[in-house]
Amino acid sequence: MLESLLNGLAVVLQPMNLVILLSAVFIGFVGGALPGLSGVILVVILLPVTYGMDSTSAFMLLTAIYASTVFSGLITSILYRAPGTPEAVMTSFDGYPMTQKGEAGKALGIGILSSAIGGTVGTVALIVFTPLLASVALQFSSPEFFALAVLGLTVVASLGSDLLLGLIGAMIGLFIATIGIDPVTATSRFTFGSLNLASGINLIPIIVGMFAISEVLKRAGENSSHKAMKEFRIRIFDGAVLKKIRTTLARSSLLGVGVGILPGIGASTAAMISYSEAVRWSRHPECFGKGEANGIAAPEAANNAAAMGALVPLFALGIPGSGTTAIILGAFVMHGLQPGPTFMSANGELIYAVFVGLLIVNLMILAFAKPFIAVLSRLLNVPYAALGPIIIICCVVGTYSVQNSMFDVWLMLGFGVAGYLLEKINFPLVAIILGVVLGPIAESEFRRSLAMSQGDPMLFFTRPISATLLAAAIGIVTLTLLAPLWKRHRRRVAAA
Amino acid sequence: MRIPTLIFSGCVFAVSAFLAVLALGLPGSDEVSTFIGPRLWPLTVLVITMLLSILLGLRTLAAGRNAGETAGEAEERAAAPKDDTGADEAESPARSRSRHWLLLALVIAWTVAMEFVGFATATVLFAAVATWLLGNRNVLSIVVTTVVSLVLVSVVFNELLNIPLP
């Protein structure tokens, strides 16, 4: 392996490949930072460009863009509460409150460091444990995937707001995910005869509408259209902060890798689960959602680690771990390569060059994020009256470009209004996203599981891994329900 | 908070009930070749949503009775003046309260206008009017925003990134 890595390093250190990596990092920075543009869109846009390149350079470019977009989504998430990518949704929970408190520099510093550490841990795990982790993921069957989705949905219990509203949000999300043609029976569900709804509702209009458009509407309704931001200085290596978040960084990076390698789960879910775990393990869970450092470290370390983990099933099994890796899989096929069990032995140089390239990309993120954000953050001094229309234009163009669909633009505006109104009752919008993301996995694996057991639901409880995951999910919801009762009891005892 | 939450729970219940009736029309397990039909999952989700919305309504009613918070108080709180430091230009609270709806109407008008006057023309008009609507009355600033929007659309999106425009 060491020899392969050194060969990979020799390929990456060729001047042209270093230029490609650097370009990819900057393209990813810009793309991830613009709400409405995502890693998927950027990889799709650049696919035709890679035809003229050799395969190794092409995949170094695509995977480096993928890694840097996952990172850069945090910038607008923290500064504007407009996540640049779906993976950065959770980061806005504590990042934006910190910006509002005048701690944008600190929040960004935590985000950059956590992303680089998570990404590096993910890449090292990708290199060292690929065969082992792939074999673990292979042991998961439908009941385990369903149980995992249920466990993921219980994250709403830890979102810090209202469990009932969170559950309603998750259910709304699960319902939205059922719209379109049922992939198993080809039956149209809730499409009302519309061809636009036949392929379901894309995640981009929902996310952009609920998070970016609703925020612009909210800001427009405020008395002040422009709140001047104080100057901030990004401090990446802050000893006190690092001491505070080190446990979260370690836990979230490992959790991210673990979740990332499971096909179809993805970095967004890893960020959500990791955030939920950070809340659960914290001595001060009440601080989350109000500008807690661990609330930024957890999702950022996890989503970057998971993004790398999602490459494991892609390389080892030919199964994409996320939306963007599915596009990368398509790119491999277009280049005449077929990822799978024999892929590593047949294309060792390419794979190890990509691995080393990803390690270098994480170092580049650490080195170039600060000057990039310094330039980008000057936008904060632009009055919101000028920035608001530009954000709306980016959202409309970005949403339209995913499927060349004006219908998606209308959907986005609808979700924007819905998000604006729901925020009036402190509704946890992220619960809806969680339902939409996990819905297709939960339903398809549920149906497959019942088909496996001839309709016997006990299957979920007789298989050790799925039973453990479901027990954990039930335990989490029960504890969340009992916690207020326990607190009330303690208060009564104390008062007595 | 009480009235909006009650309206929300009522809407969720009504929409879920309507959709559940539609879901009943979907093929069941006995009507398709697969073991589980396309009806079970959405119907289960919608029934759970209905139950949760009832719970939310009941809890909100009970909490409102206990806390004694009235809708009037909530409205009063929502209408309370907020921090206006750094505002571009002081505006009456009534105008700023309705500004987001005006902006939404403008976005809808822009989206419709794209199909008639073209994306670039509609976007220039939108950027100028939206900047003014959001409280910026400085002509130079409006011109700069409009030019930036035009450059963003035509150069960055269209030329550099080759993103299809509406």
Name the descriptors.
heterodimer; A: 496 residues; mainly alpha; two-stranded antiparallel sheet; 21 helices; 1% strand; B: mainly alpha; 6 helices
Q: Would you mind describing this structure in some detail?
A:
The complex is a heterodimer of chains A (about 500) and B (about 170). Chain A is about 75% helix and about 0% strand. Chain A is built from 21 helices and 2 strands. Chain A has a two-stranded antiparallel ribbon. Chain A has about 500 residues and is mainly alpha-helical. In chain A, a hairpin with a 6-residue loop joins β1 and β2. In chain A, α6 runs parallel beside α12 and α7 runs parallel beside α21. Chain A has one domain. The radius of gyration of chain B is 24 Å and the shape is flat. Chain B has 6 helices and no strands. The two termini of chain B are about 40 Å apart. In chain B, α1 packs antiparallel against α2. Chain B is about 75% helix and about 0% strand. Chain B is an all-alpha fold and about 170 residues long. About 15% of the residues of chain B have low confidence. Chain B has 2 domains: about 80 residues; about 70 residues, no CATH class. The chains are: A mainly alpha (about 500), B mainly alpha (about 170). At the A-B interface, α8, α9, α17, α18 and α19 of A face α1, α2, α4, α5 and α6 of B.
